From TrEMBL:
<keyword id="KW-0520">NAD</keyword>
<dbReference type="InterPro" id="IPR056179">
    <property type="entry name" value="DHQS_C"/>
</dbReference>
<keyword id="KW-0170">Cobalt</keyword>
<dbReference type="GO" id="GO:0003856">
    <property type="term" value="F:3-dehydroquinate synthase activity"/>
</dbReference>
<feature type="domain" description="3-dehydroquinate synthase C-terminal">
    <location>
        <begin position="202"/>
        <end position="343"/>
    </location>
</feature>
<dbReference type="Pfam" id="PF01761">
    <property type="entry name" value="DHQ_synthase"/>
</dbReference>
<dbReference type="Pfam" id="PF24621">
    <property type="entry name" value="DHQS_C"/>
</dbReference>
<dbReference type="InterPro" id="IPR030960">
    <property type="entry name" value="DHQS/DOIS_N"/>
</dbReference>
<protein>
    <submittedName>
        <fullName>3-dehydroquinate synthase</fullName>
        <ecNumber>4.2.3.4</ecNumber>
    </submittedName>
</protein>
<keyword id="KW-0456">Lyase</keyword>
<dbReference type="InterPro" id="IPR030963">
    <property type="entry name" value="DHQ_synth_fam"/>
</dbReference>
<keyword id="KW-0479">Metal-binding</keyword>
<dbReference type="InterPro" id="IPR050071">
    <property type="entry name" value="Dehydroquinate_synthase"/>
</dbReference>
<feature type="domain" description="3-dehydroquinate synthase N-terminal">
    <location>
        <begin position="87"/>
        <end position="199"/>
    </location>
</feature>
<keyword id="KW-0057">Aromatic amino acid biosynthesis</keyword>
<keyword id="KW-0028">Amino-acid biosynthesis</keyword>
Amino acid sequence: MTQNNPFDYSSVNIRQQFQVSYDYPVLFTRQSFNVSNDTLFKLIDNLHESPKLLPVIDSEVAKHQPELIAQLKNYYKTHQIPVLPEIIIQGGEACKNDELLLDTIYQAVETHAIDRHSYILVIGGGAVVDAVGFAAATAHRGIRLIRMPSTVLGQNDAGVGVKNAINYHKRKNYLGTFVPPFAVVNDFDLLDSLSNRDKRSGISEAIKVALIKDQRFFNELYQARHLLAQFEDVSMENMIIKGAKWHLNHIANSGDAFEYGSARPLDFGHWSAHKLEELSNNELRHGEAVAIGIAMDSIYSFKLGYLSEHELKQILSLLDVLGFELNHPALRKLNVEQALNEFKEHLGGRLCITLLNGIGKGFEVNEIDIQIMADSVKCIQSEQYCQLIEQVA
């Protein structure tokens, strides 16, 4: 306390605390742009403000569904909602590495005077939804984002959550935000033009959430494995809806929706998956890498005595029947210790890996035995693996 200032600032301690409630719908439909379908129209809840809508569309969607853009424009014209010229961006992981993508969207926001009361509608796969979500979250500190995931993975996982990200210096999701979308519309018709490989890739995230959350859901996936392998509509839609519900349930009820802590139960199988994608130069789809990661961490859980042999065989058999190639060449390049260290850095300096204590029971550990995990990788590459994937009843 100085002679000229008798006030003691050391006694001042202001602690700011408030809560923000998040509420957004996740809707399931078909033929979203049929003028008689009011799913999208009802989401525009501020028509009196004459909001604008900017469509950003995955190049793969535009290529395989060339009628979609005309249908979209006609739909919003019919409902008297101003639609701006669409932006087509490259689909797949490449968009998250594109340094020009953000600038393209920011320029459109500036050119068309898009404000926080207008909308960006993104139609595309998980990577496109991720990247456009980051742009929407950072322009004007947040523009209303309506997501329409066009992939199985997007509809049951990446597209329904609160994360947005782009890659930076070859590091996956290095720049990102936790910002919930304004709404999510899962249109099953968007899946019709997917390749079998992309349909398969998205199933791994449903398997992941079933393994850590819900034994009954896993059993349903296992019983329907041959139908899922053929991408039968009812089985696929059931898998997508239940997978999305479990992801949403975790975000709402985990107590850590924005991942302030180190635990990442929804990242089961992901510590290695992110590295495998990088090692394959993104030749591996994200879901394919996750399937490999699920196998690795399931074998590791078995080797530590947490999973029974029968349970492990069920997991590996399910992945095998679905057609996942687990013994990918990228495995030979995987340095387990390095990948774990990078994941540790991603988590904030404290390693936290989800393992299985039985099917439907995920739990976290803070240490991994490098040698046992390396042996788990070798198991996938050996004849022992072939014995483990024998069909079980």
